[in-house]
Write a structure and sequence with these properties.
There is one protein chain. The longest helix is centred in the first third of the chain and has 19 residues, at 2-20. The chain has 146 residues and is an alpha+beta fold. The protein has 2 helices and 9 strands; from the N terminus they run H-E-E-E-E-E-E-E-E-H-E. Among the domains are: 53-97, no CATH class; 103-140, no CATH class. Helices cover 17% and strands 16% of the residues. The chain binds zinc ion (ZN) (3 copies). One zinc ion is lined by residues 114, 119-120, 141, 143-144.
Length: 146
């Protein structure tokens, strides 16, 4: 009997051990499914037609601003003339010559400026711009300035 008891004891020990092995109930967290590369990202084709047309603007010129060739809508402002050899190749406008400084002669004493250095027997007159002469309170000579 002693041996039978030993066997029973052994079996009991195994059962206890088995019961003692607590299976940890690990909650199974399902992995989020990897985002599938959508076909909608492919692009290329325009699926939604635009309710209004896309303006097709021509380049602005000195005559007209940017103008839509479809509806005639304009945008912005005209641009400067496209001068070539003094004439605008677009509208034919003639370019104004750059203002040339008008030089006059002023005497050391006196208050008249002259177009001729020999006028009024000036001695050692100075040549200045007309603008400068006016700024210095010189007035045009009645002899050499009509
Ligand atoms: Zn348009
Ligand atoms: Zn022009
Ligand atoms: Zn004069």
């Amino acid at each position: 009997m002693k041996r039978l008891f030993a066997v029973i004891a052994l079996i009991s020990l195994l059962i206890l051990a088995g019961c003692g092995a607590v299976a940890e109930d690990v909650p199974l967290v399902p992995m989020d499914p990897a985002p599938v590369a959508g076909d909608e990202v492919s692009g290329g084709e325009e699926t939604t037609p635009l309710p209004v047309h896309v303006h097709e603007f021509s380049d602005a010129t000195c005559v007209v601003p940017k103008t839509c060739s479809v509806c005639g809508k304009t945008e912005g402002a005209v641009v400067s003339h496209n001068y070539q050899n003094g004439t605008c190749s677009v509208c034919g406008d003639e370019q104004q010559a750059p203002a040339v400084e008008h030089m006059v002669w002023i005497p050391k004493s006196g208050n008249k400026y002259h177009s001729s250095s020999s006028c009024s027997n000036m001695k050692n007159p100075s040549q200045v711009t007309e603008e400068d002469a006016i700024a210095r309170n010189y007035t045009p000579c009645s002899k050499c300035y009509g």
